[in-house]
Amino acid sequence: MRKTIYFQEECVINAPIGQIWSLLEDTNQLNQEIGLFPVRFSPFSHEEGSLFRQSRTKAFGAIELAWREYAFEWIKQQSYSIERIYTKGPAVRAQWKVSVEPQGKNTTLLKLKGDFTYRNVVGRLAMKMIIIPQLRKTFLYALQLEGNSGGAVIQPWVKQIAVVEKERLGRLTAKLSVAFTNEQMIEQLIQTLVNGNDEDVTSMKPLQWAETNQFDRRQTVELFLIATKLGILDQEWSLMCPNCRVPKGQTNTLRQLDNTVHCDLCGVDYEINFDRYVEMRFTVNQSIRQTSQALFCVNGPLNSPHVVAQFRIPSHSSMELELPNWDQKLRWRVLKFNYTASIFDGTDDTKSKLTLTESGFTEKQVAKTRFLQVENHTSEEFVLVLEEVEWDPFALTASEVTSLQLFRDLFAAEVLSPDQQIGIGKMTILFTDLKGSTRLYESIGDALAYSDVKKHFDFLKQYIQANHGTIVKTIGDSVMAAFIQDEDAFNAALAIQKNIHMLNEKISQAVQVKIGFHTGPVIAVNANDILDYFGRTVNMAARIQQQSLGSDIVISEHDYRDLLESDGFSKLNLTLSIESLTKQLHGVDGDTRLIRIRL
Q1: Residue 10: C-alpha distances to residues 29, 129, 307 (Å)
Q2: For the chain, what is the mean pLDDT?
């Protein structure tokens, strides 16, 4: 007895399509809100020519259900669908599709469609009396958006009962107000932690939170770091796969990082780096609020925000796909196998073609067109994704956060394990030196000279921190600093030279500071229990600084050209003295072309 129930209904929602899609693409939250059951998901496996997860649940805590959940298909702001083939329980197969169509600027048609094959009478009753009524609640869930044209954040439809230790939170919030001056940001963070759903307060991205609440990005990172130090939040390092761009593991400290990480979906081991593959995220401290670890869905569109569209292409088949219009730079990729094809503009054709063979795409690039003819010449189904080329703009990478002075000050013990070396593709290393420091000690004595040198360190730190950099270490009376942007390093160097008179007013004898910096790849290591950097870029920066005469800034000609092209440099409106010079740097083959800059 195998029969199928067909379901199709639609409803007009008085809300913009963008708002409705944002609500419904979070399938984990949606499934929880409409009353579906928590699920245990296995990693993706590739068997019998298809990609799927083995999934299990207990309905009403008693009825065991197991199924294969295949990859979602979707086109952003249009539709998504899912297929399940049951291996245990009264159901045989379920296919479900959610579609949205604009009916006007602030009106959207929401369509639900499904077919459900059941195994026996129990399955028929479960589909009719339980599953379909639960899925129909999607309409009620979306209707909460009506009257929300201002775009305010929607609170959970079925309010979770969050257990918050308000007394402890109050005490820590008072300490936070002392350490961080923006009360509006503090209040919004506390509101999020108290009233947000579990997903809002776990694995939080501070830069995304800043965008949502319209706060300054840098201030937001500082707020989250201070809140972590006080015990309101916990930090975690998420290890991102370079292909599917989802976390493949988490660690609480840098010491726990491994050099390589395995992605079960992509079937690859990859070497991590700080530029892209290690992100800092935050979760509410469990002493403040307990959060549920239950999962209701892990495969929906929100879990792959960089993917504009995703399609299942059967083996030995040909399909024509109608594609959305887009502005961002995209590419085609095959899930798991990671075959890629770039997309280019500059054609009036309405259709392009993409062919997959056992060795990958026949076409290495295809035109941007409204229709795509896809041909699968293999014996397996494959999942084709249309994805953004640019990385997540809300990712707070390890290279960025570890180059902040506040992070170094608050989490000085946060270092790699002694045997670990992790690459950073681009960082600016700045060295300073106090000119004539030996004469300073001889003329005013050790005690007074040491006091002046310490004031000089405080002076440098002020401008390095203000320009989003960090002091890595001091070496005698020299400083090694790191910046994620060369423009920030230049601004810090300018500020130091411009304001050196302020330091000289506080110390016993006027001094000059020599500065040089260089940009390039570095290696992050644990050196004497600090997070330090090594490599050719560091050596070059030190050698370049040695060419400084004091009250100037020396950089390579290449770095200078990069600065000229930056937006911030052109806006400085400073009168600078620029001198070109060629030097033989110690330990560097050949001559190096340098630029000396003075105010």
Answers
A1: 21, 19, 26
A2: 90
